[in-house]
Amino acid sequence: MIVDDEEPARRRLSRLLSGLPGVEVVGDAGDGEEALRRVEELRPDLLLLDVRMPGMDGLALAQRYRELPPLIFVTAHDDYAVRAFEAHAVDYLLKPVRPERLADALERARGRLLAKQAAVSRVLEAVAPVDSSCRIITVSQGVFHFFDARSISRFWSSDKYTLFLAQQREQCTEESLTQLEERLRSHGFLRVHRGELIQLTHVKAVHARNGEHEVELQDGQLARVSRRSASTLKAALGMKAR
Known about the structure:
Elements: E1 2-3, H1 7-18, E2 28-29, H2 32-42, E3 47-49, H3 58-64, E4 71-75, H4 81-86, E5 91-94, H5 99-127, E6 135-140, E7 143-148, E8 154-158, E9 161-166, E10 169-173, H6 177-184, E11 189-193, E12 196-199, E13 203-209, E14 212-217, E15 222-225, H7 227-236
Parallel strand pairs: 1-2, 1-3, 3-4, 4-5
Antiparallel strand pairs: 6-7, 8-9, 8-12, 9-10, 11-12, 13-14, 14-15
């Protein structure tokens, strides 16, 4: 979520974010008070926050409310960096924001979120009283979300992360595709590409064009199929070789 009192700045930052993989801008706010209301409503994973704003500024917001999601300060002023990091900011970006610096800051934020998620997942797995082989756990702003992998059509890799669709939005898990493949194989999942793991019972169609294959899933997602995996996929689906 973007928090900045200048609408052009919000629009520009939103455009930069829209070009990065695995990033969704869920909303914005023009001051600290509005930001608090929007955080409660939208529960974002990350705040990109200006320092100087009317009313409650960004630093006051960060210092007073410790339950906020991770923060990246985005400002035209370079003299607040020390105070920003004292407020546990992930990063401090100067306007105009360069795309590569923004990408680096988001990578750092993802690392912090996934480290927290990993620690919680280990605790939950250790105390889980039931079989958790189908359980996928994500963490968003201190809230732990549980998903049944059998209801998920597809996992795919994006940079260093594994993503999937659930509850009409992209979710991120700390587990690699290789770990998920091993854990979910007995539940009908098949690795069809180095970056794709699909649920076979969710396959709607297989498209073959010029020797290339692509899987269409029941929820409309499309998954790439490598040449090496095409024959394995066809056999798993009971398709005759052509």
